[in-house]
Amino acid sequence: METVESINLITRNPEVRGGRPCIMGTGLKVSDIVMAQVFHGQTPDAMAVSYGVTLAQVYAALAYYYLHKDEIDSDIRDQIKKARELRDKHVGSRQASLLSG
């Protein structure tokens, strides 16, 4: 008899990171792992060390990504778009505050 094993390392909670899929017990989004690999060229080993998670958790996030690629890619595009909009508005810049002076 065949038994299907499941690795439950990815969770979704509407109160954590807007309900985006995260590594269980952390606020680390699956999309964070994907962006570290795609945009920063980090290896799974390096991600595990830098984020303080296990290698199994990193691979679970990557596996989740490939099962839900369209959804995660859309989320990443939205994050990039929002970051660019904030940059263009100089949010978080070191310019003088509009409230000072």
Structure description:
By secondary structure, the protein is mainly α. The protein contains 4 helices and 2 strands. It is globular.
Nearest-angstrom radius of gyration?
Answer: 17 Å
Question: What is the 3D shape?
Answer: globular
Question: What class do helices, strands and sheet pairing give?
Answer: mainly alpha
Compressed to H and E, one letter per element, the order equals EEHHHH
Summarize this entry quickly.
The chain has 101 residues and is mostly helical. The chain has helices spanning 30-38, 44-51, 55-67, 69-88; strands at 10-11, 22-23.
Features:
2 strands; two-stranded antiparallel sheet; mainly alpha; 101 residues
What's the helix and strand layout?
Elements lengths: L9 E2 L10 E2 L6 H9 L5 H8 L3 H13 L1 H20 L13
Antiparallel strand pairs: 1-2
Helix pairs in contact: 1-3, 2-3
